C-alpha cells in the first residue's frame, strides 16, 4: 500500500481538535527559547510522562537535543497571537512577553492555563519528527478557557 498524500494526511489529522502549547527551554546562550506545538499528550500516570513531537527542521529540535529539561505552557483562549508568534518568523519571540523562571530554571509564560515542568525521559525517532517524552517534575494551573486548534484555525469555543 502506498502512503496517503500530504494534503490528505493534513486534512485527516486536522479533524482532530487539540489545544495549543508553547514548548520552552533555555538556549545554549542562556536565553529562553520557545515553539508552538499541538502534539502534546499525556503518556503515563506512574511515572507521570507526557510527550511532544518536534520536527527535525525546527530550531527547537536542536535546543531540545542538548537540553535536559523543558516546559509545556498550555495556552489560554486569548493567547492566539502568542501562538502565532512562537510558530513564525520573529527576531525575538520573547520580546515583550511576560514569563518567570520556574524551580528548574525553565521559562514559564504568564497567563497560561497550565505549565508542566519536565525532565527529558526519552527520545524516539519517528519519520521526520522526534518524539520527546518528558517526566513531569512540577507544574501549576491558571484559570480561563482553552485556545483550540482545528482544521488549521484557532477557536475559543468548540467549532461546529
Ligand atoms: C497550532 C500549531 C501547532 C504546531 N505544532 C507543532 C508540533 O507539534 N511540532 C512541531 O515540530 N512543530 C509544530 N508547529 C510548527 C512550529 O511551531 C513552527 O515550525 C515553528 O516556526 C518552529 O520554530 P523553531 O524553528 O524556532 O523551533 C505548530 C504550529 C502551529 C501553528
Key structural traits:
single chain; 160 residues; mainly beta; Pnp Oxidase, Chain A; 7-stranded antiparallel β-sheet; 3-stranded antiparallel β-sheet; 12 strands; binds flavin mononucleotide
Topology:
Blueprint: H1 6-14, E1 18-19, E2 21-26, E3 32-37, E4 41-44, E5 49-55, H2 59-66, E6 69-74, H3 80-85, E7 99-101, E8 107-109, E9 114-126, E10 129-141, E11 148-150, E12 153-155
Antiparallel strand pairs: 1-11, 2-3, 2-6, 4-5, 5-10, 6-9, 7-8, 9-10, 11-12
Bound molecules: flavin mononucleotide.
The site of flavin mononucleotide has 16 residues, from strand 3, strand 5 and helix 2.
Characterize the structure shown.
The chain has 160 residues and is mainly beta. It has one domain (6-151): Roll (Pnp Oxidase, Chain A), CATH 2.30.110. It is 14% helix and 43% strand. A hairpin with a 5-residue loop joins strand 2 and strand 3. The chain is globular. It binds flavin mononucleotide (FMN).
Give a brief description:
The protein is mainly beta and 160 residues long. The protein has 3 helices and 12 strands, in the order αβββββαβαββββββ. The mean pLDDT is 97.
By DSSP, the count of extended strands is 12
**What's the alpha carbon Rg, rounded to whole Å?**
16 Å
Order of helices and strands: HEEEEEHEHEEEEEE
CATH class: Mainly Beta
Give the biggest sheet: 7 strands, antiparallel
CATH topology label: Pnp Oxidase, Chain A
Kindly report the name of the CATH homologous superfamily. Answer: Electron Transport, Fmn-binding Protein, Chain A
In one word, what is the shape? globular
Strand order of the largest sheet: 3-2-6-9-10-5-4
Derived from helix and strand composition plus strand pairing, the structural class reads: mainly beta
Bound molecules: flavin mononucleotide
Any guess at the CATH architecture? Roll
Q: Note poorly predicted spans.
A: none
Number of individual domains: 1
Provide the helix percentage. 10-25%
Mean pLDDT: 97
Beta-strand content? 35-45%
Amino acid at each position: 500500500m502506498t502512503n496517503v498524500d500530504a494534503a490528505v494526511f493534513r486534512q485527516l489529522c486536522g479533524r482532530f481538535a487539540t489545544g495549543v502549547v508553547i514548548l520552552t527551554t533555555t538556549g545554549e546562550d542562556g536565553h529562553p527559547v520557545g515553539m508552538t506545538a499541538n502534539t502534546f499528550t499525556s503518556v503515563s500516570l506512574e511515572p507521570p510522562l507526557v510527550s511532544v513531537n518536534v520536527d527535525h527542521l525546527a530550531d527547537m529540535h536542536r535546543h531540545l537535543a542538548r537540553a535536559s529539561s523543558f516546559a509545556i505552557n498550555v495556552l489560554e483562549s486569548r493567547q492566539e497571537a502568542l501562538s502565532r508568534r512562537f510558530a513564525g518568523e520573529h527576531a525575538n519571540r520573547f520580546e515583550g512577553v511576560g514569563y518567570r523562571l520556574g524551580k528548574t530554571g525553565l521559562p514559564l509564560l504568564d497567563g497560561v492555563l497550565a505549565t508542566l515542568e519536565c525532565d527529558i525521559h526519552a527520545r524516539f525517532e519517528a519519520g521526520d519528527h522526534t518524539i520527546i517524552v518528558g517526566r513531569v517534575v512540577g507544574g501549576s494551573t491558571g484559570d480561563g478557557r482553552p485556545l483550540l486548534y482545528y482544521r488549521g484555525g484557532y477557536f475559543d469555543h468548540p467549532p461546529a
